């Protein structure tokens, strides 16, 4: 079982050919359209670019995904583990096909121009869950998050059973090596690169031993389909529905992973009382689908430990994106994710050793 490094940053992409796009829109889509405009959309930390295609007629717009490299799908931007299956298809389209069978709301792929590395997708609009919740009334916030959790329940239950060996997600998983790679990513960037010096050897050894224990706990859980980035910027509020995007790195992992990504989000912080209620809503949703979690306090402990792993990984990743990809926009979110870690380290006496050795190196944990 090997764990690979994420792909290196790609060279800047040339803008897509508007003449080619106009011809595709006019001749290759399930409907005939006329190009009215092409505008770039704000990017994330990926090696893809996105544009909105304005059309004359209905639909009035599409999303264009531009791949950095038509062959780049053979390498994930995230570290992966257990990918024994031969990758002969774009992970985005492979996972999309599987998710469409589950009933979750994912964008329709109208056309894939393989030669140009251009995907023509349904447009869910610009309103992310994060933006929809900014300043929202408590009842609206609660309703949106319950809707997002209902989608997650469907993704986990219908996406996991029956197994789909044709889906790449079933050939990679959150095993101990991958979880430890993510912990190491935090140590490398969230500590060493951030403070400009390595840890003391005794602290490094103690921290890694504690990380190993958490990794073994998470890897030992029953495996379900995991989106891997199920958070408020990858959920689009499109009228009465919530659309799911950015799922190409899906893999198998613990049921708590996507839930922790959503409720302990780097971009929006929820009141702890609401988090408690939403976890119960998730468990009730699983039960309604025939998946019963008998020990709910044990599930909450697992959720909190998953949150520690996920949020430390995010903190390290944000420093990496700044220092390696020269994109500092995520640095402002580091205090929030480390705040979650600080509270969980204080919550569980069994984490006292980890807290004692880690806190001196991370100001936000003090």
Automatic annotation (TrEMBL):
Domain Aminoglycoside phosphotransferase: from-to ranges: 38-285
Pfam families: APH
Cross-referenced InterPro entries: AGP_Transferase, Aminoglycoside_PTrfase, Kinase-like_dom_sf
Superkingdom, taxonomy of origin: Bacteria
PANTHER family per record: AMINOGLYCOSIDE PHOSPHOTRANSFERASE-RELATED-RELATED
Protein name: Aminoglycoside phosphotransferase
Species of provenance: Nitrospira defluvii
């Amino acid at each position: 079982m090997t764990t690979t490094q994420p792909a290196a940053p790609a060279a800047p992409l040339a803008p897509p050919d508007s003449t080619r796009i106009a011809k595709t829109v006019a001749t290759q889509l399930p409907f005939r359209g006329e190009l009215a405009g092409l505008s770039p959309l704000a990017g994330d930390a990926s090696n893809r670019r996105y544009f909105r295609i304005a059309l004359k007629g209905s639909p009035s717009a599409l999303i264009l995904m531009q791949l950095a490299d038509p062959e780049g799908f053979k390498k994930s931007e995230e570290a992966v583990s257990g990918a024994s299956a031969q990758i002969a298809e774009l992970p985005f389209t492979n996972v999309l096909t599987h998710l469409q069978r589950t009933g979750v709301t994912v964008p329709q792929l109208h056309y894939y121009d393989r030669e140009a590395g251009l995907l023509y997708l349904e447009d869910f609009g610009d309103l992310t869950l994060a933006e929809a919740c900014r300043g929202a009334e408590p009842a609206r916030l609660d309703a949106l998050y319950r809707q997002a959790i209902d989608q997650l329940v469907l993704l986990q239950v219908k996406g996991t059973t029956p197994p789909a060996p044709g889906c790449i997600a079933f050939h990679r998983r959150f095993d101990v090596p991958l979880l430890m790679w993510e912990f190491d990513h935090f140590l490398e960037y969230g500590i060493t690169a951030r403070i400009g010096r390595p840890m003391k050897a005794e602290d490094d050894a103690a921290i890694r031993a504690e990380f190993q224990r958490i990794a073994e706990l998470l890897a030992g859980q029953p495996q379900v389909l995991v989106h891997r980035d199920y958070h408020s910027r990858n959920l689009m509020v499109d009228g009465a529905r919530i659309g799911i995007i950015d799922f190409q790195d899906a893999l198998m992992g613990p049921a708590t992973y996507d839930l922790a990504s959503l409720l302990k989000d780097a971009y929006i912080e929820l009141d702890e009382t609401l988090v408690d209620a939403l976890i119960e809503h998730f468990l009730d949703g699983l039960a309604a689908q025939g998946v019963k979690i008998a020990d709910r306090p044990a599930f909450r402990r697992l959720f909190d430990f998953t949150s520690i792993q996920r949020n430390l990984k995010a903190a390290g990743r944000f420093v990496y994106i700044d220092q390696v990809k020269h994109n500092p926009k995520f640095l402002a979110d580091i205090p929030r994710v480390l705040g979650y870690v600080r509270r969980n380290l204080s919550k569980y006496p069994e984490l006292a050793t980890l807290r004692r050795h880690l806190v001196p190196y991370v100001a936000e944990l003090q």
